[in-house]
Amino acid sequence: MGTIDNLPPLREVIATHGLAAKKSLGQNFLLDLNLTARIARVPGDLTGASVLEIGPGPGGLTRGLLAEGAGRVLAIEKDARCLPALAEVAAAYPGRLEVIGGDALDVDPLAHLSPPIHVVANLPYNVGTELLVRWLTPEVWPPYWSSLTLMFQQEVAERIVAEPGSKAYGRLAVLAQWRAEARIALRLPPDAFTPPPKVHSAVVHLRPLPAPRYPADPEMLSKVVAMAFNQRRKMLRAALKGLGGDVEGLLAAAGIAPTERAERVSIEGFAALARALAARQGG
Ligand code: SAM
């Protein structure tokens, strides 16, 4: 196993600190430091950059980020058992790693880091999608993050980068691609992790666009997209009944056939629909 610093190999760290993986915390660790360094290179040159890492665990990816030159890493870890191991990483990189013990869903990174911030994480699967949706729906755009480099189950990664007309296309694709560029940067088999998960994984890389691709109110867009894909097999005139009033008129105003199904509507089409809805409501 390659070493990128003077710290012990990760298997030793896990043995020393008794870090048997806990399923309830989504713990599938990356122990190959060459692999974590590869993931840390996905955002580009990190020299001097600020990085937010969620779920550092025993610190493999954290060490990759620091070895790649990150100036400041804020790492939020829920499992208190990992904190002594992470303290050793912090000691090896003085002043560059701050570790917070707690739930990432409750911590405001902006209380600890200043933008621009690269977010890099081998996410716990149970909170990954919720965090992604939060990062994609901030109150102001462009967001505080300058890139997201996130490990997901491959099936979720495919949904983020999916194109209209494909089975994977849905709410996540529209949300992600409306105002960010999203691509799959790396695919990993189960045996890249300890213990191996049941499914393949993939690293998704997202960069925010300075402004949305098509104008729309974010809440209106979220509302129509959620409703449209909630009953994705239905024609839109039926799936969108919950909007009330003249749904066919709204679809016509957006240039979408009432018999169309959600998975064939482009992001541009959904944005037009959100604008038509806003116009109807006098917005
Ligand atoms: N980054 C490490 C690696 O690549 O080997 C660990 C990745 S493991 C898939 C996910 C990590 O997230 C675990 O260390 C787990 O304890 C932590 N975690 C789970 N839920 C969390 C939460 N809500 N907030 C912060 N960390 C969490």
Give the helices and strands, then pairings.
Layout: H1 10-17, E1 29-30, H2 33-41, E2 50-54, H3 60-67, E3 72-77, H4 83-92, E4 97-101, E5 117-122, H5 125-136, E6 145-153, H6 154-161, H7 171-178, E7 180-188, E8 193-194, E9 201-208, H8 218-230, H9 236-239, H10 247-253, H11 267-280
Parallel strand pairs: 2-3, 2-5, 3-4, 5-6
Antiparallel strand pairs: 1-8, 6-9, 7-9
The structure holds S-adenosylmethionine.
What does this structure look like?
It is a single chain. The protein has two domains: 10-208, Rossmann fold, CATH 3.40.50; 218-282, Orthogonal Bundle (Helicase, Ruva Protein, domain 3), CATH 1.10.8.100. It has a seven-stranded mixed sheet, with helices on both faces. The protein has a two-stranded antiparallel ribbon with strand order 1-8. The N and C termini lie far apart (59 Å). It has helices at residues 10-17, 33-41, 60-67, 83-92, 125-136, 154-161, 171-178, 218-230, 236-239, 247-253, 267-280; strands spanning 29-30, 50-54, 72-77, 97-101, 117-122, 145-153, 180-188, 193-194, 201-208. It is built from eleven helices and nine strands. The protein is an alpha/beta fold. Helix 2 (33-41) packs across helix 3 and helix 8 crosses helix 11 (267-280). The model has no long low-confidence stretch (mean pLDDT 96).
